[in-house]
Design a protein that fits this description.
With 399 residues, the protein is an alpha/beta fold. It is built from 14 helices and 14 strands. It has a seven-stranded mixed beta sheet, sandwiched between helices. The protein binds pyridoxal-5'-phosphate. Its EC number is 2.6.1.44.
């Protein structure tokens, strides 16, 4: 007898995957055609151009890597790191740690810059590290650290990194489509992202872009790229003009990504970033009115992931299980040193919606009340913040 594997109805408010709009799911249900069919290649072209638009770049080599965000990370490191290279990695959370590990596997001399969780790396700290390691070849940093909820400002970084003769690699997985990523203006050389965070497509592709400076480094490698699947010199033969087969493009995923990018175009990037900020600030107001404590100071708090301290005496798992079972809402627990201590709420893409946050606050308060922790309501504060923003937004739209 067939098992019942029906998919329940869920509100995905963990920091990925975020809710996927019906239009994207519908696009993925289209017939599969060949990856060299001119009709499909037209979609490929359009996806590449749309990705340039969200990345804020004119980079020729802009494409979705087959695989999740981590495949984008491997692509970024595998092609641009050689054994013995000095690679500086800013380690201010789980995803910085992951890049350090991946670079080590490639035989790099990794200089990990440890930043206490919840804090940012200053420009002074970066300059100090660069001065101490004059042979540095690459600097890697996470713009939006999903494990802590920290936004890492990167103004002035490119100038210093380029002056030191290094390439600048940026993880924009939890940023792209939710907060401004301006690859050309910010001087990023190698950039990767993922589809299931603020782009609101399913997991499975990793948007990626590199500039000529990085490609020049690639063309002068001493050692062959130590991966067959993620060899950019091969892959760009499909994504460039030659359209040569390397591996089969994940057709349906690309249909989905195209639709997600069309939705982003329709909304407009500036409006989209504003929506993320409006909904995040409303959520913060609501959580704080309930008496809950946010982990990251406002000055460098990410709008796309909110990290909340779990109140004393409350068990992480119990609350998250009840939210899922009783309300169909998924939020995430902490990772690494913050496991069991925090909750992480994604305000990403389709998830950045005031009614979703209202539902979450109501259900969270009900469950905490049941567990012997009566809290004030956060809904009025959330609403007030939202309305204040709405007034400003209508002026912004009119002006
Ligand atoms: C989610 C995430 C990744 C990894 O992406 P996967 O799709 O899970 O492979 C990398 N970096 C950051 C900052 C992320 O949030």
């Amino acid at each position: 007898m067939a098992q019942n594997l029906a998919i329940p109805s869920r509100l995905c408010l963990a920091p990925g995957p975020s809710p996927v709009p019906f239009r994207v799911r519908q696009a993925m249900a289209n017939p599969v055609i060949g990856h060299l069919d001119p009709a499909f290649l037209a979609i490929v072209d359009a996806v590449q151009q749309d990705l340039r638009d969200v990345f804020g770049t004119a980079n020729r080599v802009t494409l979705p890597v087959s695989g999740t965000g981590s495949a984008g990370m491997e692509m970024s490191l595998t092609n641009f790191v050689e054994p013995g290279d000095t690679v500086v990695v800013i380690r201010q959370g789980v995803f910085g740690q992951r890049m350090a590990e991946a670079a080590e596997k490639l035989g790099a001399q990794v200089v990990a810059v440890d930043i206490p969780w919840g804090q940012i790396c200053s420009l002074e700290e970066l300059s100090r590290v660069l001065a101490a390691h004059p042979q540095v070849r690459l600097v890697a940093v996470v713009m939006a650290e999903t494990s802590t909820g920290v936004y890492q400002p990167l103004d002035g970084w490119a100038e210093r990194i380029h002056a030191a003769g290094a390439l600048f690699l940026v993880d924009t997985v939890t940023a792209l489509g939710g907060i401004p990523v301006e690859v050309d203006r910010q001087g990023f050389d190698i950039v990767f992202s993922g589809t299931q965070k603020c782009l609101s497509a399913p997991p499975g592709l990793a948007p990626f872009t590199v500039n000529e400076r990085a490609l020049e480094r690639l063309s002068r490698r001493q050692h062959p790229v130590p991966s067959w699947y993620l060899d950019l010199l091969q892959i760009r033969e499909y994504w460039g003009n030659a359209r040569l087969y390397h591996h089969t493009a994940p057709i349906s995923m690309i249909y989905g990504l195209k639709e997600a990018l069309t939705i982003i175009q329709e909304e407009g990037l500036t409006a989209r970033y504003r929506r993320h900020r409006q909904v995040a600030e409303s959520l913060w107001a609501g959580l704080e009115a309930m008496g809950l404590e946010l982990m990251v100071p406002r000055t460098h708090r990410l709008t796309t992931v909110t990290t909340v301290k779990i109140p004393d005496g409350i068990e992480d798992r119990v609350v998250r299980q009840r939210l899922l079972n009783e309300a169909g809402i998924e939020i995430a627990g902490g990772l690494g040193q913050w496991a069991g201590k925090i909750w992480r709420i994604g305000v990403m893409g389709e998830g950045a919606d005031i009614s979703h946050m209202m539902r979450l606050l109501v259900e969270l308060r009900r469950i905490l009340h049941d567990l012997g922790m009566p809290l004030p309501s956060g809904v009025e504060a959330l609403e007030a913040q939202y309305v204040a923003w709405e007034r400003e937004s209508s002026e912004w739209r009119a002006g």
